[in-house]
Amino acid sequence: MDRDSLATAATRYPNLQGLKSVPIGVMFMLAGTGNLVWERSHWIFPAGLLLCVPAYLRIGRYYSSSFGRVTFSRNRMIKDLALTLALVAVMAGTYAVDQIWDLPISGFAAGFAAATLVFTACSVGLNSQHIAVLGTLLVVALLPVWGVLSPDQEFNVALLLMGIATIVVGVFDHRLLVRTYGPASGVGLGNESA
Amino acid sequence: MHEPADLVVDRLIHEPGRLAVLTVLTSVESTDFLFLQRATGLTKGNLSSHLTKLEEAGLVQISKKFVHKKPNTSVQLTPEGKDRIANHWKRLERLRNFGQDPVR
Predict the structure, then answer these.
(1) Residue A68 is nearest to which of B16, B26, B32, comparing CB atoms?
(2) B76-86: b or e for each residue (b if 16 or more CB lie within 10 Å)?
(3) ipTM greater than 0.85
């Protein structure tokens, strides 16, 4: 029995619910491709939200019914909220930087990759898949090739890449969850006759 | 033979299944039965029996409710449970160090 893995089992659990990242990644991709392909069709994003929010909630219920529920202390919830707000602030800040200065890199995608790496390191801890996927996004975002795109195109291509990275990281996290706790339909599991 | 008081382990907690349950609970406000099963790898019957013993000793508090029309058993450490498990791990650390220290 390993004390550390037991003590951190519950704290790591929400971050390993990787399938929740799929609707978020799809939203990024829809926003990016919607703007690029359909030239600012304003119905794409709300329509995506209508599909992705219920999907996110349904995936949350799948995890609760298959792997269980965990309730955290108020301090932990405040810490998570602070990290999420910091991530949003970094994205907003880097978006503003991209709009003000015409840099040959994508500050928005680089900021997202770096902030997500820090967020992951502070919460679930980084593993090789996180470093590979988010590190690749960070390197691509810092390549001085983005100057050939207009600021709008740059933002939307960045959203597309961020969506792909979010989905891939999520799938890896879910696989780690299943490896750690067993398949979703384990035998003899449940709350009913507890 | 008498053992030094701070080197005596708490036998109720020291059982591997119960130690695992209490250790998982140290980092959260509460978890449900299913998550404890997943995290500890215990069978339903085993976990249920350990939880009953821990509840009788006043180390955990068990509450049952319905979530989405399904029964859900929620478990949380009591203040006494928090103290006992923290002291138990400290004691185990001391025991480990005691075994490693050279005899003077």
Answers:
(1) B32
(2) bbeeebeebbe
(3) no
